[in-house]
Amino acid sequence: MSTINDLEPLKNEYIPEEVLDRETESEQLRQALENRQNVHVHGPRGTGKTLIVKKQLESLGTNVCYISCQRQDTQYKVLRKTVNELTSKTVGSGHHTSELQRLLKNQVEAVETTIVLDDLDFLLLNDGDDLLYFLSRIEADLGLVLITANHRELRDQLEERTFSTLQPQRIGFEPFTGEEIYKVLADRAKNSMKPRSLRREALTYIASSTQNLAAALTWLRISAQQADNVVTEAHTKRLISEALQQYTATQLRDFTQHHRLLYQAIEKLESDQKSSVRTGDVHLKYRELCQTYGQKPLTERRTSDYLKQLEQLKLITSEYHYGGRKGKTREINRVNPYSNT
Ligand SMILES: Nc1ncnc2c1ncn2[C@@H]1O[C@H](COP(=O)(O)OP(=O)(O)O)[C@@H](O)[C@H]1O
Ligand SMILES: [Mg+2]
């Protein structure tokens, strides 16, 4: 027996026909796009930023290009992907940045275009704002939608010259309430699970345990997959660490083996010592794991950058501590998206 008719609606990348709530944000976005204004969409993970933007793009009458900067985290990569998507050309990797810039400029000068840079934080961390500066200077009907997974002002993350030409309108996304999460989960379950295969208390439990809709969906999916014929509250409770593991794996899917080893190092240190984890220990543990898995360890400089990316994914937090025998140290903790429990 199984509880599932169709797994698709329980997947994170599934695009539902209808979005629930978020009317204000959707409307603000629609107007900005129509008025050809640049937009900065901001808010924590799992608040529906990507979905709402994609939905609004569906009905937009311009050329559209959606880029996730988690994968494309340099100016060069973004330019290449944008040119490939917007033109029918396939440009290889042998081109110079300036040539790609020229191709893109020609294209957007010819056709009204909207470019979405999702998870822009990753591009900014890795490569600064040169690309945005270039885009902001193009004199054509080009609309930009910039999405970041934090509430910080873009003004503080960009050079003044870039920000002042972009002047994006801010649209903020706040975490979902328990009721909203419940509603979305129930809607997905209706399209995915067999009748009477999900207890109300199980849904309530998940919805009250997290504000991150992606994490909630992962938990429901795992519970539905593992249950014999009905998902109960006890059932979901038992599966929380498996859900966490799955959520983390999905977040790290587009990253390297070394990102995963670093995360694993932190996980191990946390369970070994029960106290806070220092960056120095993380690097040691990571090297140990590399040896175990026959991987050549990366330099500490690279792994420090990777740790920052884990932080941007909200999988870990890191905090400086001053004083004590060692002077300034950095402490790392894993983030549990189900921490309302
Ligand atoms: N308003 C909504 N109605 C229905 N499902 C939603 C809504 N907002 C988000 N979701 C679903 O929740 C998950 C996380 O949303 P996502 O857009 O990826 O969040 P973010 O980009 O803010 O991290 C996705 O599976 C998405 O389909
Ligand atoms: Mg997103």
UniProtKB/TrEMBL annotation:
Key words of the record: ATP-binding, DNA replication, Nucleotide-binding
Coiled coil feature spans: none
Residues in AAA+ ATPase domain copies: 35-172
This protein's record includes keyword Transmembrane: no
Molecular function in Gene Ontology: ATP binding; ATP hydrolysis activity
CDD domains (alphabetical): AAA (cd00009), Cdc6_C (cd08768)
SUPFAM superfamilies per UniProt: P-loop containing nucleoside triphosphate hydrolases, Winged helix' DNA-binding domain
Domain of life, source organism: Archaea
One Gene Ontology term from the biological process aspect of the record: DNA replication
InterPro entries named among the record's database cross-references: AAA+_ATPase, AAA_22, Cdc6_C, ORC1/CDC6, Orc1/Cdc6_arc, P-loop_NTPase, WH-like_DNA-bd_sf, WH_DNA-bd_sf
Pfam families, per database record: AAA_22, WHD_Cdc6
Residue span(s) of domain Cdc6 C-terminal: 262-335
PANTHER family: CELL DIVISION CONTROL PROTEIN 6 HOMOLOG, CELL DIVISION CONTROL PROTEIN 6-RELATED
Family: Belongs to the CDC6/cdc18 family.
Protein name (Swiss-Prot/TrEMBL): ORC complex protein Cdc6/Orc1
Organism: Halorubrum vacuolatum
